[in-house]
Amino acid sequence: MIQLITGKKGTGKTKIIIDKINAAVKDTNGCLVCIEKGETLRRSISYKVRWCDAEQFNIDSFDAFYGFVAGMLAGNYDIKEIYVDGILKIAGADFEALGRMLEKLDKLTGDDSSVTFTVSADAAELPASVTKYMD
């Protein structure tokens, strides 16, 4: 399952994802993973969450990001939720490529895991391939 938190820079997306992560620690049976570029969230989320810096793993495209997540899920079946802050900072601002990657991830995760992304863009800027994952 894919979920998106969208909005322009400064609209509170990071605060929302931090709150979701910390709430999930209390409610989820299984592992939680947080992926970001840099260390903005690291000190704001529970130590129980597996934290990854996309730069450390040289993730610089949507294909690289998909491969990274697929590898994590293949090697660890107890990952229930993945949170990604700033997917456009990690993989680039190609909205069509984002839509293709979201579709592949949705098939990969199915009902077993969920992936929540923050996307720094207004919904009106995003193509249908992306907006179909918005609440």
Task: Kindly describe this structure.
With 135 residues, the protein is an alpha/beta fold. The chain has one domain (2-117): P-loop containing nucleotide triphosphate hydrolases (Rossmann fold, 3-Layer(aba) Sandwich). The chain has 5 helices and 5 strands, in the order βαββαβααβα. α2 runs parallel beside α4 (95-109). The radius of gyration is 14 Å and the shape is globular.
Number of structural domains: 1
Q: How many DSSP helices?
A: 5
CATH architecture: 3-Layer(aba) Sandwich
Could you name the CATH homologous superfamily? Answer: P-loop containing nucleotide triphosphate hydrolases
What does the largest sheet look like? 5 strands, parallel
Distance between the termini: 12 Å
Shape: globular
Helix- and strand-based class?
alpha/beta
Helix content: 25-40%
Q: What is the overall pLDDT average?
A: 92
Q: Percent of residues in beta strands?
A: 15-25%
Low-confidence stretches: none
Strand order of the largest sheet: 1-5-4-2-3
CATH class: Alpha Beta
DSSP strand count: 5
Elements, N to C (H/E): EHEEHEHHEH
The CATH topology label is Rossmann fold
C-alpha Rg (nearest Å):
14 Å
